[in-house]
Recover the amino acids of this structure.
């Protein structure tokens, strides 16, 4: 068992510290990935917390053991919001309130426990240490104890959000995001379902049938595998971060530069005819003025399915579909804003679904101009020649 414990400690150190290293690197490179950073940090701290419990760090500081708990409830929601933002969705106050309810509830529960049940902390720490260090120890705690319930809720939330992310990405139809989710996040998805199988089911059996067993043989192997899978994700993220795989943003422009002489050359020459027809119709027919306009509204009309259209768009153009549509909305707003109407009315008329969305894109206008202006001018000129 000593070899297994040492292996687990090594993996816990690697997973937690490499995760924190990736967080530091993303921040130092000024990548605007707040939700991914929060998810990564909460996951790294989970493995660090487990390591500290295993080596006995909380023996003298049992209250810190409990103060860690709320951190683990913020991760799943942050990962969901991270991908929602990548798909061009505006994240508002309502989203924060809805998705952070488990985190806020955990804070309230932790405060109550800290104020009312401090004498029990040392016993909880010792109990958990026995579970993960002593393969002869059998937990005699009565069914429905609070730690088990909180753990079931935490894993349930993770699986729920992973399912929601999968559904939304498949519906959105962008192959780049789908590749990121299926490849780079594959290890953590497997880890979540592994925990459901090996943690939640035994807990339910214990609660329902009062079945006692040495939890060491469940917790330790599961944590070893989960730690390895998270470490695998972190290593893939570090390897791909320089090519903006994790940081790819479908509400922003890509890092491909527009040719220096874009106004002198036909920058649309390499765009396939069907794709060019599609992006031209968005411009000429002013499809972007519909706040609900999306890929599905134009793809089928020009002989694509959603995924194929996204793949062709990203392959042949140095900006995203969302950037193109919202840039046209910005240009329309500049040209057609009417002082007789309210600011809100002018924003909605231009196709934005909210004032917050409009201001979000206004902040990016200079960057959008540097990539998109020449393409829009070329499309306008081509249309004028027809």
């Amino acid at each position: 068992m000593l070899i297994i414990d040492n292996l687990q400690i090594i993996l816990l150190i690697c997973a937690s510290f490499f995760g924190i290293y990736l967080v530091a690197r993303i921040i130092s490179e000024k990548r605007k990935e707040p939700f991914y950073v929060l998810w990564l940090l909460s996951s790294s701290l989970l493995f660090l917390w487990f390591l500290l419990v295993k080596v006995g760090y909380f023996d003298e500081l049992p209250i810190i053991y409990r103060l860690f708990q709320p951190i683990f409830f913020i991760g799943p929601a942050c990962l969901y919001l991270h991908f929602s933002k990548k798909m061009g969705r505006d994240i508002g106050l309502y989203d924060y309130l809805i998705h952070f309810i488990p985190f806020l509830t955990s804070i309230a529960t932790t405060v109550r426990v800290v104020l009312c049940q401090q004498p029990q902390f040392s016993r909880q720490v010792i109990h958990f240490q026995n579970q993960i260090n002593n393969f002869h120890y059998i937990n005699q705690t009565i069914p429905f104890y609070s730690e088990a319930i909180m753990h079931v809720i935490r894993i349930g939330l993770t699986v729920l959000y992973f399912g929601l992310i999968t559904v939304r990405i498949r519906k959105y139809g962008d192959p780049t995001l789908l590749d990121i989710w299926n490849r780079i996040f594959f290890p953590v998805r497997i880890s979540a379902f592994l925990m459901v199988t090996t943690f939640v089911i035994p807990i339910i059996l214990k609660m329902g049938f009062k079945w006692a067993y040495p939890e060491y043989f469940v917790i330790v192997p599961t944590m070893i595998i989960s730690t390895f899978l998270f470490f695998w994700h972190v290593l893939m993220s570090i390897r791909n971060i320089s090519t903006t795989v994790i940081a790819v943003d479908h509400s922003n422009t890509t890092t491909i530069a527009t040719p220096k002489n874009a106004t002198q050359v036909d920058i649309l020459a390499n765009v396939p005819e069907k794709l060019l027809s599609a992006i031209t119709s968005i411009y000429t027919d002013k499809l972007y003025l519909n706040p609900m306009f999306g890929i599905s509204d134009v793809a089928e009309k020009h002989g694509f399915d959603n995924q194929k259209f996204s793949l062709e768009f990203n392959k042949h153009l140095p900006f995203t579909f969302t950037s193109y549509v919202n840039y046209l909305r910005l240009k329309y707003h500049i040209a057609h804003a009417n002082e007789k109407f309210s600011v809100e009315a002018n924003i909605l008329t231009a196709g934005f679904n909210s004032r917050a969305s409009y201001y979000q894109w206004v902040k990016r206008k200079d960057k959008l101009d540097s990539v998109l202006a020449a393409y829009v001018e070329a499309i306008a000129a081509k249309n004028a020649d027809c």
Observations:
- The chain has 18 helices and no strands.
